[in-house]
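Quick question, first post here. What does this chain look like in 3D?
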Amino acid sequence: MRINKFLAEQGVASRRGSDKLIEEGRVTVNGVRVKAGADVSPTDVVEVDGKILSHKVKYEYYMLNKPKGCVCTVSDDKGRKTVMDLLPSGAGRVFPVGRLDYDTEGMLILTNDGELAYRLTVPKNEIPKTYLVRIEGTITDVQLNRLRAGIEIEKGVVTKKCRVNVIKTDKNYTKLHVVLTEGKNREIRKMFEAVGKNVDFLKRIKIGELTLTGLDRGAVRKLSREEVFYLQNL
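> Answer (accepted):
Ran it through. Tokens below.
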């Protein structure tokens, strides 16, 4: 098994985060620092920062209704509140799957299942994620069609086609549902900025057909076996 996959399954970090730990020289196998791409076997002794990891893994899966004002990291060097602070005391060593911005609310999955995390975040799988967006004022059909067709949000960076539907509007604000199959940094906010609109509220409300129904802002719960199976087969 590749070392980054093993670390992800242990709940140490995502695969990308594990690669960073390896690059920093914090991971050893049988007492020797390893390089990215190395393999490990069940008989190897793997350590991170001197702590030995077990090869036995009990997977845990949580859904969090992330509030504004916390970051999607295991720890924060600026001392800000993280999503880990919202987990129950008995939760295992899990990590957030993907990220929501500091000012973005909504559904976040946390787990130590590296395979599931990879499945939900790798771009080629095109997992649909639905967001509730509120913008100031109204929006025209021309602007909507530009968003749907894919729009340049940075020099040379163009979004994929997506679904954008108005669900409520008046002269002061417009609410929309936006369904993305990718996850570029601050993508939705940049999309609307590109058509001259400011997003003043953003919340992820669905991953696939899995919803936040019944989960209050800031609350967390374990996923059911049926929900885990659904996500594993998206």
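The longest strand covers residues 199-207.
The CA atoms of residues 10 and 108 lie 19 Å apart.
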